[in-house]
Amino acid sequence: TAIAEAEKCKEEGVSRTILLNLCGHGNFDMKAYQDYFAGKIVKHELTQEEINRSIAKLQTPLIP
Question: Given this model, what pLDDT does residue 13 score?
Protein backbone atom coordinates (compact mmCIF):
# COMPACT_ATOMS: atom_id res chain seq x y z
CA THR A 1 0.00 0.00 0.00
CA ALA A 2 1.01 3.64 -0.33
CA ILE A 3 1.18 4.00 3.46
CA ALA A 4 3.48 0.99 3.81
CA GLU A 5 5.73 2.37 1.07
CA ALA A 6 5.85 5.79 2.78
CA GLU A 7 6.79 4.16 6.10
CA LYS A 8 9.51 2.14 4.35
CA CYS A 9 10.93 5.34 2.81
CA LYS A 10 10.88 7.03 6.21
CA GLU A 11 12.77 4.12 7.80
CA GLU A 12 15.34 4.12 4.98
CA GLY A 13 15.69 7.91 5.08
CA VAL A 14 14.94 8.25 1.37
CA SER A 15 12.55 10.48 -0.52
CA ARG A 16 10.42 8.93 -3.26
CA THR A 17 7.37 9.95 -5.22
CA ILE A 18 4.43 7.70 -4.40
CA LEU A 19 1.49 7.83 -6.78
CA LEU A 20 -1.96 6.66 -5.83
CA ASN A 21 -5.41 7.03 -7.28
CA LEU A 22 -8.56 7.78 -5.33
CA CYS A 23 -11.84 7.83 -7.15
CA GLY A 24 -15.52 7.63 -6.47
CA HIS A 25 -17.62 8.91 -3.63
CA GLY A 26 -17.99 6.53 -0.71
CA ASN A 27 -21.65 7.34 -0.08
CA PHE A 28 -22.61 6.15 -3.55
CA ASP A 29 -20.05 3.37 -3.87
CA MET A 30 -21.04 1.67 -0.62
CA LYS A 31 -24.71 1.51 -1.60
CA ALA A 32 -23.75 -0.03 -4.93
CA TYR A 33 -21.59 -2.64 -3.18
CA GLN A 34 -24.41 -3.44 -0.76
CA ASP A 35 -26.87 -3.83 -3.64
CA TYR A 36 -24.41 -5.97 -5.61
CA PHE A 37 -23.75 -8.38 -2.75
CA ALA A 38 -27.48 -8.52 -1.93
CA GLY A 39 -28.19 -9.61 -5.51
CA LYS A 40 -30.17 -6.44 -6.29
CA ILE A 41 -28.13 -5.38 -9.32
CA VAL A 42 -29.87 -6.35 -12.54
CA LYS A 43 -27.58 -7.09 -15.46
CA HIS A 44 -28.72 -5.09 -18.47
CA GLU A 45 -27.08 -5.49 -21.85
CA LEU A 46 -27.77 -2.65 -24.25
CA THR A 47 -29.41 -3.55 -27.51
CA GLN A 48 -27.93 -2.22 -30.72
CA GLU A 49 -30.98 0.06 -31.01
CA GLU A 50 -30.28 1.59 -27.57
CA ILE A 51 -26.64 2.11 -28.52
CA ASN A 52 -27.61 3.76 -31.82
CA ARG A 53 -30.10 6.09 -30.07
CA SER A 54 -27.43 7.15 -27.57
CA ILE A 55 -24.86 7.76 -30.30
CA ALA A 56 -27.40 9.82 -32.25
CA LYS A 57 -27.75 12.15 -29.24
CA LEU A 58 -24.02 12.93 -29.20
CA GLN A 59 -23.09 16.20 -30.80
CA THR A 60 -19.80 15.17 -32.31
CA PRO A 61 -18.51 16.33 -35.68
CA LEU A 62 -18.35 13.81 -38.47
CA ILE A 63 -14.83 12.84 -39.43
CA PRO A 64 -14.47 12.14 -43.16
Answer: 96
Q: Which are the contacts of 18, defined by CB distance < 8 A and separation ≥ 6? A: 2, 5, 6, 9
> What local confidence, expressed as pLDDT, does residue 18 receive?
93
CB 26, CB 19: distance < 8 Å: no
End-to-end CA distance of the chain: 47
Residue 17, CA distances (Å) to 10, 14, 20, 21 in order: 12, 10, 10, 13
The one-character DSSP state at 38 is T
Q: Give per-residue pLDDT as tens, 11-46.
A: 999 999 999 877 766 666 788 888 989 999 988 899
Extents of the domains making up the chain: 23-57
